[in-house]
Amino acid sequence: MFKGLVGIVTGGASGLGKATVEQLLKQGGRVVICDLPSSPGADVAKQFGNDTAFVPVDVTSEQDIRNALQTTVDKFGRLDVAVNCAGIATASRIYNFKKEQPFDLKSFQKTIEVNLVGTFNVIRLVAGLIGKNAPNADGQRGVIINTASIAAFDGQIGQAAYSASKAGVVGMTLPVARDLAKQGIRVVTIAPGLFRTPMMDQLPEPAIKQLESSVPFPSRLGQPEEYALLVQSIIQNPMINGETIRLDGSLRMQP
Ligand SMILES: NC(=O)C1=CN([C@@H]2O[C@H](COP(=O)(O)OP(=O)(O)OC[C@H]3O[C@@H](n4cnc5c(N)ncnc54)[C@H](O)[C@@H]3O)[C@@H](O)[C@H]2O)C=CC1
Ligand SMILES: C[C@]12CCC(=O)C=C1CC[C@@H]1[C@@H]2[C@@H](O)C[C@@]2(C)[C@H]1CC[C@]2(O)C(=O)C=O
Protein backbone atom coordinates (compact mmCIF):
# COMPACT_ATOMS: atom_id res chain seq x y z
CA MET A 1 0.00 0.00 0.00
CA PHE A 2 2.89 2.40 0.85
CA LYS A 3 5.31 1.11 -1.80
CA GLY A 4 7.85 3.85 -2.50
CA LEU A 5 6.88 5.88 0.57
CA VAL A 6 9.76 7.10 2.72
CA GLY A 7 9.21 8.13 6.32
CA ILE A 8 11.10 9.49 9.30
CA VAL A 9 9.91 8.54 12.78
CA THR A 10 11.37 10.36 15.78
CA GLY A 11 11.28 8.37 19.00
CA GLY A 12 11.18 5.41 16.60
CA ALA A 13 13.19 3.10 18.85
CA SER A 14 10.41 2.59 21.39
CA GLY A 15 6.69 2.47 22.09
CA LEU A 16 4.36 4.36 19.76
CA GLY A 17 7.22 5.33 17.41
CA LYS A 18 8.51 1.77 17.07
CA ALA A 19 5.00 0.45 16.29
CA THR A 20 4.69 3.17 13.64
CA VAL A 21 7.98 2.14 12.04
CA GLU A 22 6.75 -1.47 11.93
CA GLN A 23 3.40 -0.51 10.40
CA LEU A 24 4.98 1.64 7.68
CA LEU A 25 7.39 -1.19 6.83
CA LYS A 26 4.53 -3.73 6.73
CA GLN A 27 2.79 -1.53 4.19
CA GLY A 28 5.88 -1.47 1.97
CA GLY A 29 7.42 1.83 3.12
CA ARG A 30 11.03 2.59 4.02
CA VAL A 31 11.77 4.31 7.30
CA VAL A 32 14.53 6.25 9.01
CA ILE A 33 14.41 5.77 12.77
CA CYS A 34 15.53 8.89 14.66
CA ASP A 35 16.13 8.50 18.36
CA LEU A 36 18.66 9.32 21.07
CA PRO A 37 22.14 7.76 20.75
CA SER A 38 21.45 6.00 24.06
CA SER A 39 18.27 4.38 22.68
CA PRO A 40 18.11 0.86 21.22
CA GLY A 41 17.55 2.43 17.76
CA ALA A 42 20.51 0.69 16.10
CA ASP A 43 19.31 -2.75 17.24
CA VAL A 44 15.73 -1.98 16.26
CA ALA A 45 16.84 -0.94 12.75
CA LYS A 46 18.93 -4.12 12.45
CA GLN A 47 15.96 -6.21 13.52
CA PHE A 48 13.69 -4.55 10.91
CA GLY A 49 16.16 -5.03 8.01
CA ASN A 50 17.34 -3.16 4.94
CA ASP A 51 14.34 -0.88 4.52
CA THR A 52 15.25 0.95 7.71
CA ALA A 53 18.15 3.05 8.89
CA PHE A 54 18.92 4.45 12.33
CA VAL A 55 20.22 7.95 12.84
CA PRO A 56 21.07 8.97 16.40
CA VAL A 57 19.47 12.34 17.05
CA ASP A 58 18.37 14.67 19.77
CA VAL A 59 15.23 16.26 18.31
CA THR A 60 16.20 19.61 19.83
CA SER A 61 19.36 19.80 17.70
CA GLU A 62 19.25 21.41 14.25
CA GLN A 63 22.44 19.64 13.16
CA ASP A 64 21.16 16.21 14.24
CA ILE A 65 17.96 16.59 12.23
CA ARG A 66 19.90 17.89 9.21
CA ASN A 67 22.10 14.75 9.47
CA ALA A 68 18.99 12.57 9.58
CA LEU A 69 17.59 14.25 6.48
CA GLN A 70 20.91 13.79 4.66
CA THR A 71 20.88 10.07 5.52
CA THR A 72 17.26 9.84 4.33
CA VAL A 73 18.19 11.32 0.96
CA ASP A 74 21.41 9.30 0.64
CA LYS A 75 19.73 6.00 1.49
CA PHE A 76 16.17 6.37 0.18
CA GLY A 77 16.25 9.43 -2.12
CA ARG A 78 13.23 11.35 -0.77
CA LEU A 79 10.96 12.01 2.22
CA ASP A 80 7.16 11.72 2.20
CA VAL A 81 6.10 11.40 5.83
CA ALA A 82 7.51 12.56 9.18
CA VAL A 83 6.04 11.23 12.41
CA ASN A 84 7.04 13.02 15.62
CA CYS A 85 6.90 10.57 18.54
CA ALA A 86 9.97 11.61 20.56
CA GLY A 87 8.91 12.86 23.95
CA ILE A 88 9.40 12.72 27.70
CA ALA A 89 6.86 12.54 30.53
CA THR A 90 7.65 14.61 33.61
CA ALA A 91 5.58 15.25 36.73
CA SER A 92 5.84 17.80 39.53
CA ARG A 93 3.47 20.10 41.40
CA ILE A 94 3.83 23.83 40.85
CA TYR A 95 4.82 24.33 44.52
CA ASN A 96 5.75 21.82 47.24
CA PHE A 97 4.41 23.47 50.42
CA LYS A 98 6.00 20.86 52.73
CA LYS A 99 9.50 21.49 51.37
CA GLU A 100 8.78 25.12 50.46
CA GLN A 101 10.06 24.33 47.00
CA PRO A 102 8.76 25.73 43.72
CA PHE A 103 8.61 23.62 40.54
CA ASP A 104 12.16 23.24 39.26
CA LEU A 105 12.50 25.70 36.38
CA LYS A 106 15.12 23.59 34.56
CA SER A 107 12.76 20.61 34.56
CA PHE A 108 9.95 22.76 33.11
CA GLN A 109 12.30 24.10 30.43
CA LYS A 110 13.56 20.60 29.52
CA THR A 111 10.01 19.28 29.06
CA ILE A 112 9.10 22.19 26.79
CA GLU A 113 12.42 21.89 24.96
CA VAL A 114 12.01 18.20 24.06
CA ASN A 115 8.25 17.90 23.55
CA LEU A 116 7.45 21.27 21.98
CA VAL A 117 10.66 22.83 20.65
CA GLY A 118 11.90 19.40 19.47
CA THR A 119 8.68 18.77 17.55
CA PHE A 120 8.82 22.27 16.05
CA ASN A 121 12.48 21.80 15.09
CA VAL A 122 11.68 18.61 13.20
CA ILE A 123 8.64 20.09 11.46
CA ARG A 124 10.48 23.19 10.23
CA LEU A 125 13.36 21.13 8.83
CA VAL A 126 11.46 18.20 7.27
CA ALA A 127 9.10 20.64 5.52
CA GLY A 128 11.95 21.79 3.26
CA LEU A 129 12.71 18.25 2.09
CA ILE A 130 9.08 17.10 1.71
CA GLY A 131 8.43 20.31 -0.24
CA LYS A 132 10.90 19.16 -2.91
CA ASN A 133 8.60 16.25 -3.90
CA ALA A 134 6.59 16.51 -7.09
CA PRO A 135 2.92 16.92 -6.10
CA ASN A 136 0.51 14.02 -6.72
CA ALA A 137 -2.71 14.45 -8.73
CA ASP A 138 -4.33 16.05 -5.67
CA GLY A 139 -1.45 18.51 -5.21
CA GLN A 140 -0.11 16.67 -2.14
CA ARG A 141 3.61 16.44 -1.44
CA GLY A 142 3.59 14.77 1.98
CA VAL A 143 2.36 14.57 5.56
CA ILE A 144 3.70 15.56 8.99
CA ILE A 145 2.16 13.83 12.01
CA ASN A 146 2.80 15.00 15.59
CA THR A 147 2.08 13.37 18.94
CA ALA A 148 0.49 15.47 21.66
CA SER A 149 -1.49 13.88 24.52
CA ILE A 150 -4.93 14.15 26.06
CA ALA A 151 -2.98 15.91 28.82
CA ALA A 152 -3.01 18.89 26.45
CA PHE A 153 -6.73 19.18 27.29
CA ASP A 154 -7.24 17.39 30.64
CA GLY A 155 -3.96 18.09 32.42
CA GLN A 156 -3.78 16.37 35.80
CA ILE A 157 -2.17 17.44 39.06
CA GLY A 158 1.59 17.56 38.49
CA GLN A 159 1.33 17.92 34.73
CA ALA A 160 1.84 21.68 34.29
CA ALA A 161 5.01 21.21 32.23
CA TYR A 162 3.90 18.13 30.28
CA SER A 163 0.44 19.57 29.52
CA ALA A 164 1.90 22.92 28.47
CA SER A 165 4.35 21.20 26.13
CA LYS A 166 1.61 19.09 24.53
CA ALA A 167 -0.87 21.99 24.37
CA GLY A 168 1.84 23.84 22.42
CA VAL A 169 1.93 21.00 19.89
CA VAL A 170 -1.88 21.13 19.58
CA GLY A 171 -1.76 24.92 19.26
CA MET A 172 0.72 24.99 16.42
CA THR A 173 -1.00 22.27 14.38
CA LEU A 174 -3.47 24.53 12.54
CA PRO A 175 -1.11 27.46 11.86
CA VAL A 176 1.63 25.14 10.61
CA ALA A 177 -0.89 23.29 8.40
CA ARG A 178 -1.93 26.67 7.03
CA ASP A 179 1.72 27.68 6.50
CA LEU A 180 2.37 24.52 4.48
CA ALA A 181 -0.96 24.25 2.64
CA LYS A 182 0.29 25.93 -0.55
CA GLN A 183 3.07 23.33 -0.76
CA GLY A 184 0.54 20.51 -0.39
CA ILE A 185 1.96 19.30 2.93
CA ARG A 186 -0.60 18.20 5.52
CA VAL A 187 0.00 18.56 9.28
CA VAL A 188 -1.99 16.47 11.74
CA THR A 189 -1.60 15.80 15.47
CA ILE A 190 -2.64 12.70 17.41
CA ALA A 191 -3.51 13.12 21.10
CA PRO A 192 -3.22 9.64 22.64
CA GLY A 193 -4.78 8.70 25.96
CA LEU A 194 -3.16 5.86 27.89
CA PHE A 195 -0.98 3.49 25.85
CA ARG A 196 1.02 0.46 26.90
CA THR A 197 4.60 1.52 26.16
CA PRO A 198 7.88 1.63 28.08
CA MET A 199 6.83 5.14 29.22
CA MET A 200 3.85 3.55 30.97
CA ASP A 201 5.62 0.33 32.00
CA GLN A 202 7.58 2.25 34.63
CA LEU A 203 4.39 2.18 36.73
CA PRO A 204 3.58 -0.63 39.17
CA GLU A 205 0.93 -3.08 37.86
CA PRO A 206 -1.77 -1.97 40.37
CA ALA A 207 -1.39 1.63 39.14
CA ILE A 208 -1.73 0.41 35.54
CA LYS A 209 -4.87 -1.58 36.44
CA GLN A 210 -6.31 1.51 38.07
CA LEU A 211 -5.55 3.63 34.99
CA GLU A 212 -7.14 0.98 32.74
CA SER A 213 -10.35 1.01 34.73
CA SER A 214 -10.62 4.77 34.18
CA VAL A 215 -11.02 4.31 30.40
CA PRO A 216 -14.75 4.04 29.53
CA PHE A 217 -14.38 1.78 26.47
CA PRO A 218 -12.40 -0.19 25.66
CA SER A 219 -11.47 -0.31 29.33
CA ARG A 220 -7.77 -1.01 28.88
CA LEU A 221 -4.56 0.67 27.79
CA GLY A 222 -4.25 1.27 24.08
CA GLN A 223 -1.84 -0.91 22.11
CA PRO A 224 0.95 0.91 20.23
CA GLU A 225 -0.32 -0.83 17.04
CA GLU A 226 -3.62 1.06 17.44
CA TYR A 227 -1.72 4.35 17.39
CA ALA A 228 0.19 3.15 14.29
CA LEU A 229 -3.11 2.31 12.56
CA LEU A 230 -4.23 5.91 13.02
CA VAL A 231 -0.95 7.11 11.52
CA GLN A 232 -1.68 4.89 8.52
CA SER A 233 -5.24 6.26 8.17
CA ILE A 234 -3.99 9.85 8.35
CA ILE A 235 -1.46 9.16 5.61
CA GLN A 236 -4.14 7.52 3.45
CA ASN A 237 -6.86 10.15 3.89
CA PRO A 238 -6.01 13.42 2.12
CA MET A 239 -8.86 15.39 3.75
CA ILE A 240 -7.43 15.11 7.28
CA ASN A 241 -5.43 18.29 7.83
CA GLY A 242 -4.80 20.92 10.51
CA GLU A 243 -6.58 18.85 13.16
CA THR A 244 -5.78 17.13 16.47
CA ILE A 245 -7.39 13.71 16.82
CA ARG A 246 -7.91 12.23 20.29
CA LEU A 247 -7.22 8.48 20.50
CA ASP A 248 -8.35 7.69 24.00
CA GLY A 249 -11.34 5.29 24.34
CA SER A 250 -13.36 8.38 25.41
CA LEU A 251 -11.20 8.90 28.52
CA ARG A 252 -11.35 12.32 30.17
CA MET A 253 -8.63 12.44 32.80
CA GLN A 254 -9.64 13.31 36.34
CA PRO A 255 -7.71 16.02 38.29
N1 LIG B 1 2.30 6.07 26.25
C1 LIG B 1 1.29 6.88 26.44
O1 LIG B 1 0.32 6.57 27.14
C2 LIG B 1 1.26 8.23 25.80
C3 LIG B 1 2.34 8.78 25.12
N2 LIG B 1 2.24 10.04 24.58
C4 LIG B 1 3.33 10.62 23.82
O2 LIG B 1 3.69 9.74 22.77
C5 LIG B 1 5.06 9.87 22.45
C6 LIG B 1 5.71 8.49 22.47
O3 LIG B 1 5.63 8.00 23.79
P1 LIG B 1 5.88 6.47 24.18
O4 LIG B 1 6.09 5.69 22.96
O5 LIG B 1 4.83 6.12 25.14
O6 LIG B 1 7.22 6.65 25.01
P2 LIG B 1 8.61 5.88 24.96
O7 LIG B 1 9.35 6.38 26.14
O8 LIG B 1 8.40 4.42 24.77
O9 LIG B 1 9.27 6.45 23.61
C7 LIG B 1 9.72 7.75 23.49
C8 LIG B 1 10.98 7.75 22.65
O10 LIG B 1 11.40 9.11 22.50
C9 LIG B 1 12.81 9.13 22.57
N3 LIG B 1 13.28 10.47 22.95
C10 LIG B 1 13.11 11.10 24.15
N4 LIG B 1 13.72 12.30 24.12
C11 LIG B 1 14.27 12.43 22.88
C12 LIG B 1 15.03 13.44 22.24
N5 LIG B 1 15.37 14.58 22.86
N6 LIG B 1 15.43 13.23 20.96
C13 LIG B 1 15.11 12.09 20.32
N7 LIG B 1 14.41 11.10 20.86
C14 LIG B 1 13.99 11.27 22.14
C15 LIG B 1 13.14 8.09 23.64
O11 LIG B 1 14.50 7.67 23.55
C16 LIG B 1 12.15 6.99 23.31
O12 LIG B 1 12.69 6.04 22.41
C17 LIG B 1 5.62 10.86 23.48
O13 LIG B 1 5.67 12.13 22.88
C18 LIG B 1 4.61 10.84 24.60
O14 LIG B 1 4.58 12.04 25.31
C19 LIG B 1 1.11 10.76 24.66
C20 LIG B 1 0.03 10.27 25.32
C21 LIG B 1 0.02 8.97 25.91
C1 LIG C 1 0.78 10.61 35.82
C2 LIG C 1 0.23 9.25 35.36
C3 LIG C 1 -1.18 9.04 35.94
C4 LIG C 1 -1.19 8.65 37.37
C5 LIG C 1 -0.26 7.54 37.66
O1 LIG C 1 -0.53 6.73 38.53
C6 LIG C 1 0.94 7.46 36.89
C7 LIG C 1 1.22 8.26 35.83
C8 LIG C 1 2.55 8.22 35.16
C9 LIG C 1 2.41 8.08 33.68
C10 LIG C 1 1.49 9.17 33.14
C11 LIG C 1 0.11 9.08 33.83
C12 LIG C 1 -0.95 9.99 33.22
O2 LIG C 1 -0.78 11.30 33.62
C13 LIG C 1 -0.98 9.98 31.68
C14 LIG C 1 0.40 10.05 31.05
C15 LIG C 1 1.02 11.44 31.19
C16 LIG C 1 1.29 8.97 31.63
C17 LIG C 1 2.48 8.94 30.70
C18 LIG C 1 1.84 9.22 29.31
C19 LIG C 1 0.40 9.63 29.57
O3 LIG C 1 -0.44 8.52 29.34
C20 LIG C 1 -0.11 10.73 28.67
O4 LIG C 1 0.62 11.45 28.04
C21 LIG C 1 -1.53 10.90 28.59
O5 LIG C 1 -2.03 11.76 28.02
Q: In a nutshell, what does this entry contain?
A:
Its EC number is 1.1.1.53, 1.1.1.62. The chain has 255 residues and is of the alpha/beta class.
Characteristic key phrases:
binds 1,4-dihydronicotinamide adenine dinucleotide, EC 1.1.1.62, 255 residues, androstan-3-alpha,17-beta-diol dehydrogenase (NAD+) activity, seven-stranded parallel β-sheet, estradiol 17-beta-dehydrogenase [NAD(P)+] activity, NAD(P)-bd_dom_sf, binds the ligand C[C@]12CCC(=O)C=C1CC[C@@H]1[C@@H]2[C@@H](O)C[C@@]2(C)[C@H]1CC[C@]2(O)C(=O)C=O, two-stranded antiparallel ribbon, SDR_fam
What report would you give on this structure?
With 255 residues, the chain is an alpha/beta fold. 42% of the residues lie in helices and 16% in strands. It contains 8 helices and 9 strands. Strands 3-2-1-4-7-8-9 form a 7-stranded parallel beta sheet, sandwiched between helices. Strands 5-6 form a two-stranded antiparallel ribbon. Strand 7 (142-147), helix 5 (160-180) and strand 8 (185-192) form a beta-alpha-beta unit. The radius of gyration is 18 Å and the shape is globular. The protein binds 1,4-dihydronicotinamide adenine dinucleotide and the ligand C[C@]12CCC(=O)C=C1CC[C@@H]1[C@@H]2[C@@H](O)C[C@@]2(C)[C@H]1CC[C@]2(O)C(=O)C=O.
